[in-house]
Design brief:
Chains A, B: Its EC number is 1.2.1.41. The structure is a homodimer. The first copy, chain A, is α/β, with parallel strands linked by helices. Chain A is built from 16 helices and 16 strands. The first copy, chain A, folds into 2 domains: 241 residues, Aldehyde Dehydrogenase, Chain A, domain 1 (3-Layer(aba) Sandwich), CATH 3.40.605; 143 residues, Aldehyde Dehydrogenase, Chain A, domain 2 (3-Layer(aba) Sandwich). In chain A, the strands form 4 sheets. In chain A, strands 10-9-11-8-7-12-13 form a 7-stranded parallel beta sheet.
Chain lengths: 426, 426
């Protein structure tokens, strides 16, 4: 679709319904496609990206120029850039997804029932996935490849500031799909930058089976509120590390330092450190020195501030995802108080205990109701690649359908398969 | 809560928020309860029912009297009745659920990652389940027992016409929970018959994790439309049986007869029969005679009516769940037309093929996108008990979270469990 056609997108509702109908129809084709055909498409898309590097960069330049002219923040402009290394990463991502096992069609738990019927479950695509994301154009390839491999049709809505880049990427997608003999409507990008298109996308249950928003909390909250379609959503990542009195303090030191300082702007970074009062005096000064060296601002409760230099932590601090070199610290009386604090303030993303005590470790993993619970490991491991999913479409902080890092399996469902030999109910 | 207290339920919003807070708190207690404690509660509830038979029947008499006075249809009054056999069935149901394996805490797929961390998944309760149902009071025990065993707190909203029966059953639930040392707020019934209570229940995501409506399509559509909480919903059951040209016609006869006439008012009954034109002349007259004997009204397309006596099937017939001794019949040119028809009209509940052809059977189970797909078996098998789930909270026609018959597992989620030895991300 070129700019001339775009100008004709006057009726957003009709335009989106058309994409929806296309996607629903294409979902049958991609669901029926063999693993080999899907992989062929993925590799052909990679080739198309490789063969169109000059166009991709040139189209991205248009977006970058517009972004600068519109006074977009430098960090946003940086996220928008498609560099040769960005294209390399997209190509590598496609090849990795092609190499992953196909989740679809796997039949499990097949067993005979006393009536003689044989019952099992078959993994199947969800149908049509709508993905809404912000400026980074490489998400277009990421999202498209995961949907394609999991047998779903996709409707992608990138940021309006990356429309030219996304259109160039979409051309490569179409080329690759064609090589594999698949309809180009298996992956469609929304060509209008009209914001009403998002409103339509999330309110067409007849055409769209699930929405995956990728972006800031504001975006995700808005979409969840208005969606008439299930949403795989990721809200806050307020992660805790609890250093138990029976912790190996060297492990505790490594984990507490890594969980906070390995990267700051990520959802699986620790935001609050809980320390058992029996070991606080031993571990906190050592940690405080290390954090100071990294430039991490500390905010502590009264007991913490009696041991190390820290600003006062307010009620708000316990409920804040800093995404920055800031850490709140609380000294607790033991496991019970730690679990109570986590239950109250955790965003149910990832929480960890450091302990050598078997019973306390078991209690922590049982009683802490978060999508990832860890013993003696850094919260930074909460990630689809680290968990071996091979790829990640997002991290769900919901409990329904998919929880924690969501890979290909999260974009599928299971249906029941029943085999008989003329069996009837008596 | 007695009638006096009920009269005080003037502020439904506050009353429901109170139930919600209680449930959220109780969900921690029940999630932490051992399998033994949960089973003890289930068996103690069974004992309480057994010990309170006279009260149960007496309270039910009040509901029956009111129902008759209000001119409720006899079928509805019948569903409302708590007879000695109803109590026996409730007791037996509780014992069966106690005997089922506990889904919670099961850790699966535990494996080492190259980094050295060990990653797996643990099955956990959803938290708080809200169940909305119509007149049958035994659903109160059904629903409560499944929620309890799966480690969830429950808020139950039965029909206003069964309020006295439900209150008597709730007293037995409270007694059983007490015996097991569990808070009685693990299962709460909504004591007000104010319809606004349902509106509140489905709009408290902070207190309720999932809603399971059990009842007519109207109820489920209303709830799905307004819910701010995920809904495990079951809409139509427009089920198909396709008799392929390579079918064993004796099996086809048995299955087509059973799927339609075993029971009429159930969601897994066949509503449309599709027959390959190559075998239609052989099988349809034989089937028509059998249906006539059972008093089933036939509605057919032109080709069908050329072979057997039937009324004319309209476009509306293909899209109708009769739940009655009515069957629409269509003669098709082969598997492709059958799959096309099913794709267009099926409610994605259950569809079956009768064939001896291996390739067509494989195509049917792969390409038909329904929650149950069957080969050479009656659609009537689509049922939690028949599938070996041990119990069934409902049949989901959604694809997200739970699909098809939903047992204990459908009331749970999985969290990630990570074990390390001081591991950090590098």
């Amino acid at each position: 679709m070129d700019l001339r056609v775009m100008a004709e997108v006057v009726n957003v509702k009709e335009y989106m319904a058309e994409l929806g109908r296309n996607a629903r129809k294409a979902s049958r084709a991609i669901a029926a496609a063999s693993t080999g055909v899907k992989n062929k498409a993925l590799l052909a898309i990679a080739d198309a990206l490789d063969n169109n590097r000059i166009t991709l960069v040139a189209e991205n330049q248009k977006d970058l120029a517009a972004a600068k002219a519109n006074g977009l923040e430098p960090a946003m402009v940086d996220r928008l850039a498609v560099k040769p290394a960005t294209i390399d990463a997209m190509i590598e991502g496609l090849r990795q997804v092609a190499a992953l096992p196909d989740p679809c069609g796997a039949i499990t738990d097949m067993s005979y029932r006393p009536t003689g019927i044989q019952v099992g479950k078959m993994r199947v695509p969800l149908g049509v996935v709508g993905i809404i994301y912000e400026s980074r154009p490489n998400v277009t390839i990421d999202a498209a490849s995961l949907c394609l491999k999991s047998g779903n049709a996709a409707i992608l809505r990138g940021g309006s500031e990356s429309i030219n880049s996304n259109r160039a990427i979409a051309a490569c997608l179409a080329e690759g799909l064609k090589v594999a003999g698949l309809p180009n409507t298996v992956v469609q990008i929304i060509e209008t930058t009209d914001r009403a298109a998002v409103g339509e996308l999330i309110a067409m249950p007849e055409f769209v089976d699930v929405i995956v928003p990728r972006g800031g909390k504001g975006l995700i909250e808005r979409i969840s509120k208005d969606a008439k379609v299930p949403v795989i959503k990721h809200l806050d990542g307020i992660c805790h590390v609890f250093i138990d009195s029976k912790a190996d303090l060297d492990k505790a030191f490594d984990i507490a330092l890594n969980a906070k300082t390995h990267r700051y702007g990520v959802c699986n970074a620790m935001e609050t450190l809980l320390v058992d009062e029996q070991v606080a005096a031993q571990i906190l000064p050592r940690l405080a020195a290390a954090y100071a060296e990294k430039g991490v601002e500390l905010r502590g409760d009264e007991k913490t501030r009696a041991l190390i230099q820290a600003n006062e932590a307010t009620e708000e601090d316990w409920a804040t995802e800093y995404l920055a070199p800031v850490l709140s610290i609380k000294v607790v009386s033991g496991l019970d108080e730690a679990i109570d604090h986590i239950t109250r303030y955790s965003s149910q993303h990832t929480d960890a205990i450091v302990t050598e005590d078997f019973t306390r470790a078991r209690r922590f993993i049982t009683e802490v109701d978060s999508s990832s619970v860890m013993v003696n490991a850094s919260t930074r491991f909460a990630d689809g690649f680290e968990y071996g999913l091979g790829a990640e479409i997002g991290i769900s902080t919901d409990k329904i359908h998919a929880r924690g890092p969501v890979g290909l399996e999260g974009l599928t469902s299971q249906k029941w398969v029943v085999f008989g030999d003329g069996h009837v109910r008596v």
